[in-house]
Specification:
Length: 328
């Protein structure tokens, strides 16, 4: 077994995490039921919310209540904020602290057009001074562990993560997460581990490596080639809350056993039923279609299952369709 510190506890500004394998913030996915499945079946060191608009949170937008909900059985939860107004981000960080946040993160890496149109997300990386001002304001507002999630750069001709990371450190961040692609790069492009390593070498605070981590081998590669303090799993946990346990098991030198077809279906339905209680039958049935596709990935008949999801308009129709596919 390769020597690793990914399974060792991590203490950051008084917060103790039992390992250094973290769940990434996933817009449209990492709601409370999703996170609870990850915690119950995978046990990552820390969970993360979907990204939350700081402006909407400060204005008291009722829709944000959905993003703020935290289950009492969840593990440590990092709330991720997006926005460009330092004062709004500071106030939003205070609100999240009052709702049980274990840590706060500033999103500086989202490539979605809607977010970037406001100057937020990865577009912020074009203005390193703005990111530093935002982190400084958030640092003054809260005493929780504070981080920024970056990409290696906003554009293919501007890999400026090192510059931004140094500014974030001076502003008071406790750690940084680096996704190993630039803002215009699709996920079929391998993560740029050498660029993550450059950030690790440039700053004294811990750096979390993100991108293409999906099992023990890829987690160890990320650690070995970047020197990162921990890894973050994004797409690898969609429809696969077991991935965190898989990584831990394989890093420990043990064989990993994939969950059965039936187990996948049972956890999917458990997630769905929680979602129905949270947002109602109609919204939950629409939302679960995309997540259900991931639960079916790699199984025989998955294409037919995905096609059939378009015809599921009620909880009863979805549950019957899932039961047939997963053999429940």
């Amino acid at each position: 077994m390769t020597e690793t510190h990914l399974l060792t506890p991590w203490v950051i500004r008084g917060l103790t995490l039992h390992n250094r394998i973290l769940q990434a913030p996933l817009a449209g996915y990492s709601n409370m039921p999703f996170r609870l499945m990850c915690w119950q079946y995978g046990r990552p060191g820390m969970l993360a919310t979907e990204m939350i608009s700081a402006q909407a949170l400060v204005r008291g937008c009722k829709h944000n209540e959905y993003y703020l909900l935290r289950h009492e059985e969840e593990g440590p939860l990092q709330y991720q904020l997006w926005g460009t107004d330092p004062e709004a981000l500071a106030e939003a960080a205070r609100i999240c602290t009052g709702r049980g946040a274990a840590a706060i993160d500033l999103n500086c890496g989202c490539p979605v057009r809607k977010v970037n149109a406001s100057g937020s997300g990865v577009t912020m990386m074009r203005d390193p001074a703005l990111i530093a001002r935002c982190i400084a304001a958030m640092r003054q507002a809260v005493d929780l562990p504070l981080s920024a999630k970056l990409r290696v750069g906003p554009m293919p001709d501007n890999f400026n993560a090192v510059e931004i990371a140094r500014g974030v450190v001076e502003a008071g961040a406790d750690f940084i997460t680096i996704h190993g692609r630039h803002g215009k790069e699709a996920y079929n492009t391998p993560a740029r581990l050498a660029e993550i390593a450059r950030v690790v070498e440039a700053v004294a605070i811990p750096v979390i490596g993100n991108g293409d981590v999906c099992d023990g081998k890829s987690a160890l590669r990320m650690e070995a080639e970047t020197g990162c303090a921990g890894v973050m799993v994004g797409r690898g946990c969609m429809g696969n809350p077991w991935v965190f346990d898989r990584i831990s098991t394989e890093i420990s030198g043990k064989a990993w056993t994939e969950p059965s077809r039936e187990a996948r279906g049972e956890v999917l339905l458990k997630n769905f039923r929680m979602l129905v209680k949270l947002i109602g039958a109609e919204r939950a049935t629409r939302h679960i279609r995309k997540l259900a596709s991931f639960y079916s990935k790699g199984l025989q008949g998955s294409r037919e299952f995905r096609m059939g999801l378009n015809f599921c308009h009620t909880p009863q129709e979805f549950e019957a369709h899932a039961a047939r596919h997963f053999g429940l």
